[in-house]
Amino acid sequence: MSVKMLVTGGAGFIGLNFVRWTLENRPEYEITVLDKLTYAANGGAINGLKNFKKISFIKGDICDPNVVFDAVENTEIVVHFAAESHNDNSLHDPMPFVYTNIVGTANILEAVRKFDKRLHHISTDEVYGDLAIDSSDKFTPETRYNPSSPYSSTKAGSDLLVKAWIRSFGIKATLSNCSNNYGAYQHIEKFIPRQITNILCGIKPKLYGNGAQVRDWIHVDDHNSAVHAILDKGKIGELYLIGANGECDNKTIVETILELSGLPKDQYEFVSDRPGHDQRYAIDSTKLRQELGWEPKYTDIREGLAQTIKWYEDNAYFWKSEKQFVEAKYAKSGQ
Ligand code: NAD
Ligand code: TDX
């Protein structure tokens, strides 16, 4: 018998990979994607999944309670990926982040409360703020929330709403906070695909500030296998941190991409820094590993980057038409 799963934001980078992975590996799920199809979505790729019979699509906004209530009533599980997700955009225009990430999540919570459905809320390690570059500290589920940007503060707000609905109303929810993802179908405004496609277009990779900031990279398929581990075995009411010990500074990532692309390692340039730039993220995923037995599959960032470079080379249709627009927008901020 099928289990009905509603995936919000299932046309975006991680959601789309989640939907594909689930259709390929977990045939017991019948998926409905609810997505507004913003600039970040891949509507075409969702269409391409229609040969899997167990998928349907609703174009709709999670800020609209009618859309959300109808969709949630007709499902058993909700996996909530939908969000405005790019820090740089949140610094130019924060209000869409407030509406989608906070109001949209509140609508999802009210709907799962009314219809008594299971929810998994997808969040980010950025809710904890940043760590010192030269420390060996890591975020744990006990770390205090201390977000820096409009993006991360609205994600923190959405987490706090989920926690309050768990405690006050006893909704059946879990949360996960993951580190930086990379892989196929990531929008080219984000760091790794921006640099890969810059190189493919003969543009120099751009490093913000001094390039020393550290991110804890995880392959998107590992993020999604962890979400499935939580859906299968996670304890209701709990928060899990997802990370694959992939710490690397931005300069080293750019140098590796250049090298893998057959270019000299110094063919990049420094550009204006991001205001309020978080310095370092690092995840301690002991709880997820010990309690749920999860392990990442991609442990070599170099191999993961090589695979991702090949994907962008082979799938120029996905990004070519947008490249000029994205770069023109960055150029306006000196980035
Ligand atoms: P994305 O920007 O690529 O995709 C977001 C999707 O949500 C898009 O398809 C968009 O159309 C949809 N969406 C946006 N506003 C909507 C609305 N109002 N109603 C319905 N749909 C809407 O984002 P992503 O990188 O795939 O991130 C997905 C989730 O994972 C987010 O919640 C994000 O905070 C979280 N996350 C991302 C990362 C990362 O590295 N990308 C890391 C940790 C957590
Ligand atoms: O051109 C660039 N040059 C550069 O040096 C860009 C686009 C980014 N950067 C730096 C900024 C960050 O230190 O690279 C790092 C990664 O930047 P982003 O890809 O914008 O990611 P980040 O801000 O770390 O947030 C990402 O991970 C956590 C996702 O976008 C979030 O949705 C997620 O929550």
Strand content: 15-25%
Strand order of the largest sheet: 3-2-1-4-5-6-11
Largest sheet: 7 strands, parallel
The number of distinct β-strands equals 13
Notes on the structure:
It is a single chain. This protein has 335 residues and is α/β, with parallel strands linked by helices. It is 43% helix and 16% strand. The protein has helices at residues 13-25, 43-47, 65-73, 87-92, 95-115, 150-169, 191-200, 220-233, 250-260, 286-292, 301-314, 320-332; strands at 3-8, 29-35, 55-59, 77-80, 118-124, 173-178, 181-182, 206-208, 214-216, 218-219, 239-242, 247-249, 269-271. α6 (150-169) links the parallel β5 (118-124) and β6. α1 (13-25) crosses α8 and α7 packs across α11 (301-314). The longest helix is centred in the first third of the chain and has 21 residues, at 95-115. The protein is globular. The mean pLDDT is 97. Bound molecules: nicotinamide-adenine-dinucleotide and thymidine-5'-diphospho-beta-D-xylose.
Task: Quickly describe the structure.
The chain contains twelve helices and 13 strands. It is an alpha/beta fold and 335 residues long.
Topology:
Layout: E1 3-8, H1 13-25, E2 29-35, H2 43-47, E3 55-59, H3 65-73, E4 77-80, H4 87-92, H5 95-115, E5 118-124, H6 150-169, E6 173-178, E7 181-182, H7 191-200, E8 206-208, E9 214-216, E10 218-219, H8 220-233, E11 239-242, E12 247-249, H9 250-260, E13 269-271, H10 286-292, H11 301-314, H12 320-332
Parallel strand pairs: 1-2, 1-4, 2-3, 4-5, 5-6, 6-11, 7-10, 8-13
Antiparallel strand pairs: 9-12
This protein binds nicotinamide-adenine-dinucleotide and thymidine-5'-diphospho-beta-D-xylose.
